[in-house]
Structures are given as structure tokens and as C-alpha cells.
Recover the amino acids of this structure.
């Protein structure tokens, strides 16, 4: 990892090219912009265009009726995991599974599953912008949920973490209808989404309302996540209560309950989220007794650390290979 001495956890020294259609806020401190690295970011860098207390039940018919083809795999769109706006997700199915579902064949195989949570400084981004991630994992054989969650500034911590936990619980509890083995479920997040997944799983209080223990999740992957920083100095303060402080909200200080294994990745050329976050989160997890692996994505920026999941950009760096290798080891 890079030298972490005196490095602030966030910076914005090298922002992406401006996008006039961006949903990111405009009057924020120049020290911080947690880049919305979806399809828009990929274009810029690569040249390519549960109910409140219980996970809601999902019928097999609802799945089949919602199937549409997309990017070589099949997707069921806009499935609600909660009752409020933005508490929905899209499910991507590997091609063999989708074909069997369409033809109403008897399906005996259970698939592994990934729940993916996008970044965007807790204010921007959507599941549609990260369709390429769902397609990428489905092409590798994983049923994949790409989720939306409630955003700041209207919704501050812990709302978006609670949404992440609820989406994980929905996926776990609906595994049979999705032809998923609930014992092979992983969660993956990028940037602010990595904060969400690590926070939602490493503190058992978030999954407890749904009767799920953190160690029921078989793997957690965080990519370029801001797990340990002072939002009062380095930006993102609109995503946290005005009277809160890092000790009350940062995941490296909220560990509770039995832990699953983790893979925490940093981007070699990340100028948005510094690797001090991963260093501190890794140490906190290890001190708590969790099994943690770390890795660096060579040549990657903050944006390409997720953008390279897209087929036209996989040559840029090996983030996809690193994540799939880890998931294969932990889930298969």
C-alpha cells in the first residue's frame, strides 16, 4: 500500500472531467467529491459510451414476469425490498439460469449471489448507472442484486446503512425464489457503497431486525471505501447528522458480533479515498478477530476501480479478476 503518513482520508486533487448532467452537489467543499463512478465515469475514463421489520416475500411469478434481456444476461427490474422510494433493486441472472426460468424448466441447481452497493458520496448514483456491475457478476455465474438506497441530504446516517442491511436481508430471505444458495451470499460495495456494506455487516445491530447474523454473509468485499475519516474536515458532512462525530459512525469503531471474512481493496492511484481508510479498517477487524485480506488494484483510479468491471474496460486493471478470485474461494 501507499505511504499513509499524514495523508487525509479524502481529497479531490484530481477530479474526473466535469459532467453537466451530474447529480452531484455543487456548493460543496472542494476538498471532497466521492466520485459517482458508474457508466458516466466509465465514459469519462475509458471512452465507452423487507418491509420495515421483515424482508418482503417475493413470488417466482413476479420474477419471471419481470425478466428482460440486458447485456448478454437477464434482469428483473425495480423489485422492492422496502416500502419507501429508492428501496428497490435489480436482479441479474446468469444466462443458463435465465433460460431455464423462461422455459419453465425444473431448476435444481442453486447459484451463489452477490449484493452490490454503489458509491456516490451517499448523495448520487443509482442502480441503473451500475448495470454493468450486475451484468459482469452475472456473466461470471452469480445471481446479482444491484440496489438503490435512500440518499443524503434528506437521509443521513444510518438510513443508507439500514437500507443496505434490509436489501441484504431481502436477498438472503428470498434466496429460494431466486434459485440462490443462501449459504453462498456475498456483499460488495464501492466507495460510499463500500462504507455501507462494511458498516451493515460488521455491526450486528443492522441485520438483527431481520433475524440474520453477520456471519451468515459468507464474504464482504469493499473497494476504495471511506471507512475511517473525519467528515467534519474532509467532506461528506451532509450525509451525517450535524451533531455526530466519526467515533459514532465510522465502521472501524462500530464492530459488533460474529464477523464474516473480508477483502478490502484500494486503488493505486486513488486521489479521492486514501488507503488510510483501509489500513485502519483492516486493523480494527483483525483486532476484533475477523479474517481480512487486502489488495491493491494496480494502475487504478477511484473511478476505474469499479469502472473496469465493465467488459470494454477490463483491460485497464484487474479489479474484476481480484474480486472474482476471492469470491470463488469463499463461495464455491
Amino acid at each position: 500500500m501507499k505511504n499513509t503518513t499524514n495523508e487525509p482520508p479524502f481529497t479531490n486533487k484530481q477530479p474526473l472531467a466535469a459532467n453537466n448532467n451530474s447529480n452531484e452537489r455543487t456548493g460543496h467543499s472542494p476538498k471532497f467529491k466521492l466520485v459517482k463512478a458508474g457508466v458516466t465515469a466509465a465514459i469519462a475514463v475509458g471512452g465507452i459510451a423487507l418491509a420495515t421489520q421483515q424482508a418482503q416475500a417475493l413470488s417466482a411469478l413476479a420474477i419471471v414476469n419481470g425478466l428482460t434481456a440486458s447485456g448478454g444476461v437477464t434482469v428483473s427490474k425495480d423489485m422492492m425490498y422496502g416500502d419507501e422510494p429508492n428501496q428497490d433493486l435489480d436482479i441479474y441472472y446468469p444466462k443458463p439460469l435465465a433460460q431455464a426460468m423462461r422455459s419453465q424448466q425444473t431448476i435444481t441447481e442453486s447459484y451463489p449471489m452477490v449484493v452490490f452497493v454503489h458509491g456516490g458520496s451517499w448523495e448520487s448514483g443509482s442502480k441503473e448507472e451500475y448495470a454493468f456491475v450486475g451484468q459482469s457478476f452475472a456473466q461470471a455465474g452469480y445471481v446479482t442484486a444491484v440496489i438503490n438506497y435512500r440518499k443524503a441530504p434528506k437521509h443521513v446516517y444510518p438510513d443508507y446503512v439500514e437500507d443496505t442491511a434490509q436489501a441484504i436481508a431481502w436477498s438472503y430471505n428470498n434466496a429460494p425464489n431466486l434459485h440462490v444458495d443462501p449459504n453462498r451470499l456475498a456483499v460488495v460495495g464501492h466507495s460510499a457503497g463500500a462504507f455501507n456494506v462494511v458498516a451493515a455487516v460488521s455491526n450486528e445491530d443492522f441485520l438483527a431486525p431481520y433475524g440474520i447474523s453477520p456471519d451468515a454473509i459468507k464474504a464482504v468485499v469493499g473497494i476504495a471505501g471511506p471507512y475511517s475519516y473525519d467528515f467534519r474536515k474532509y467532506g461528506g458532512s451532509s450525509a451525517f447528522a450535524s451533531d455526530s462525530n466519526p467515533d459514532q459512525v465510522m465502521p472501524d469503531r462500530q464492530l459488533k458480533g460474529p464477523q464474516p471474512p473480508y477483502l478490502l481493496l484500494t486503488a493505486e492511484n486513488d486521489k479521492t479515498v486514501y488507503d488510510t481508510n483501509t489500513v485502519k479498517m483492516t486493523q480494527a477487524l483483525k483486532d476484533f478477530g475477523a479474517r481480512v485480506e487486502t489488495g491493491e488494484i494496480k494502475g487504478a483510479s477511484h473511478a476505474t476501480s469499479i469502472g473496469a468491471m465493465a467488459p470494454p474496460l477490463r483491460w485497464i486493471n484487474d479489479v474484476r479478476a481480484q474480486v472474482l478470485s476471492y469470491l470463488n474461494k469463499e463461495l464455491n
Summary: The two ends are 29 Å apart (CA to CA).
